From TrEMBL:
The keyword Cytoplasm does not apply. The keyword Oxidoreductase applies. It comes from Pseudomonas wuhanensis. Keywords: Dioxygenase, Oxidoreductase. Residues 5-63 form the TauD/TfdA-like domain. This is TauD/TfdA family dioxygenase.
Length: 66
């Protein structure tokens, strides 16, 4: 995007943000003890809500399969 003007860059950024935060594209999970969620991280943009006292003791494991 370096070859485009600032207005074109901003327009693209707005389009990407609209897709990323579109509720139709969002999967949210309400965690319960014993839950296991598997995600194809190759094609997933992921994030999380801010940490809270309830989430501070969570345990995450990362496993890679090739």
């Amino acid at each position: 995007m370096q070859d485009h003007d600032e207005q074109a860059q901003q327009a693209l950024l707005e389009q990407v943000n609209a897709l990323v935060y579109d509720p139709e594209c969002l999967i949210a999970h309400q965690w319960s003890e014993g839950d296991l969620v598997l995600i194809d991280n190759y094609r997933t943009l992921h994030g999380r809500l801010p940490m809270s006292p309830a989430s501070s003791s969570r345990e995450l494991w990362r496993v890679q399969v090739y």
